[in-house]
Amino acid sequence: MTAAILLWSVSIAQAMLVIAMGCNAYRLIRGPRAQDRVLCLDAMYVIAMLLILTMGIRTGSAIYFEAALIIAVLGFASSVALAKFLMRGEVIE
Amino acid sequence: MSHAAELPVWAALLTSLLLLVGAGLTLLGAVGVLQFRSFFERVHAPTLGTSWGTGAIALASIVFFSSLGTRLVVHEVLIGVFITVTTPVTLMLLARAALHRERAEENPNVPSRAVMRRRGSAPAPEDGAGDAAGTPSS
After folding, report:
1. In terms of residue numbers, what domain contains A69?
2. How far is CA B83 from the centre of its chain?
3. Structural domain harbouring B21
4. Buried b / exposed e across B37-53, counting CB within 10 Å, b at 16+?
5. What distance in Å separates residue A45's CA from the closest CA in chain B?
6. Where exactly are the transmembrane stretches of this chain (chain B) (predicted)?
7. How far is A55 from chain B (nearest CA, A)?
8. Of A45, B19, B30, B85, which sits most exposed with the smallest number of CB within 10 A?
């Protein structure tokens, strides 16, 4: 009973997160300007981290937590680097 | 999901509720990214996923692993705190970069630097940002 409840809710949550990632990927490809693409990339990092957390709940192993933490750190670093590039690298030079 | 069979019912229900709330908020933010018209509206949308989307899913993970192992597992708090602290930094940097780009192209839809200064909220001087008279290169 509890396993069925959890299985269904984890599956629905993963489907929702995948749809959210699809919306962000559409905007990442379509997005009119570079800042939209950077924004969507940052949002996709967060959604991938949430997908890995739900995968950890699904399998019941604690290994996925460390992968999620690493993705959070790398997503922050790469988004800040891309924002700084947009600020300095392209328009003025 | 054979490991979940020994989970108490209240823990399973709480985990499911938190998971669905978190994933639903993240989906709402992604739909906002898809639907809003301008970048400065769009930059608000993913914060739904980074505030309570992340918070609820991390709480679900805490509840699940705590009731499985019968001891308190709180290291998911680390992810929640990290995302909560870093997302405003990222989005502020990105919005300032976008504003700077729009001003350099003399887009009439964004307030110019002179307007901001007249309103008394003079932004801090930036390197290579061009002055109020506005002679942006290229």
Report:
1. 2-88
2. 8
3. 7-116
4. eebeebbebbbbbbbbb
5. 10
6. 12-34, 46-65, 77-99
7. 10
8. B85
